[in-house]
Amino acid sequence: MKVALVYDRVNKFGGEEKVLIALHTLFPKAPLYTSVYSRKNADWAKIFKVRSSFLQRFTFTHTIHEKLAPFMPFVFESFDFSAYDLVISVTSESAKGIVTHPPTRHLCICLTPTRYLWSGYKEYFSNTLYRALSYPVVMYLRHWDIQAASRPDIIVGISTAVQKRIQKYYKRSSELIFPPVEFNTRIKKPKEVKKEPFFLVVSRLVRYKRIDIAIRAANKLGKTLIVIGAGHEEENLKKIAGPTVTFLGFVNDEELAWYYKNCEALLFPGREDFGIVMVEVQLFGKPVIAYRGGGALDIVKEGETGEFFDKQNAPALIDMLKSFKPYRYNKKNCVSNARNFSHKVFNAKMKEIVDDIMKTHA
Fold first, then answer.
1. pLDDT tens digits for 94-106?
2. Within this chain, do residues 168 and 245 fall inside the same structural domain, yes or no?
3. pLDDT (tens digit per residue) in 71-99
4. What confidence score (pLDDT) does residue 60 get?
5. Are 104 and 129 contained in the same domain?
């Protein structure tokens, strides 16, 4: 069976890219089609034969992809997949809009319906003038996005929250498959590390992750908070951070494993489509304190592997931290729960779905 993979753009590394790496283990010969490919920022993709679009000719497109949204329908409709039996698109934007013809099958792993068009529209277009000027383009893209979502033979959501969005915005039912999570590495203690108990944030530092909530809560309670990650909100977050908050930027996996193993708990104040770091920390037997929403609802077992706070603000997190007792959470329960999201489980579910699409839609 000849298989191809499709992804919106290959120019960063995060949880979404780990899904592609997992698919590579299942389909090692499958090429990866994408709009643009930055070798510098996506070293992980060297395991693939990457086939990028005509946008690759223009180097500036590798870093300003947000401004290229109006061109994405044409980009992904221009690819030819007639040589393949199965195409698997992994997408939070336009890759689901590829055009396939029988007998080629199309399986879409939807990370979320296009955020800036739907669930995140008000956040992305908060400026009134910008929203007004962009309205015609947004309406065009919404119309195309709905059409694009009708093209896959089977669509898969990565969490129950994403499934609900697929139904709401695309009026389609979907299968459920959780992203695979494993963290097999030795543990290395950082050279300089604080000895007192600490809470942990591991995240890209962007606005919708709401890291400001964790920082304000740590400031108020005088709790030690370690923030691992980087992003364009870093300077703004540093400005509001008190003396008990430390920013480490990126750390290697061995040091990250040490922080996972030794933290009191992972703080997760955002609303994510899934949230791989919540699984990773539980693999080390540690609980999660998360905002009650998004992928956290699938990952955290309340009272067993963590807790939820109900309002997405600092006072709600502060109230939770005041009553939080880390000794209440059994390490074995956390590890056992995390193993529900293993590569073994992912591979078995993928095989089941692929078998189904090749038989049912034959």
1. 999 999 999 999 9
2. no
3. 999 999 999 999 999 999 999 999 999 99
4. 62
5. yes
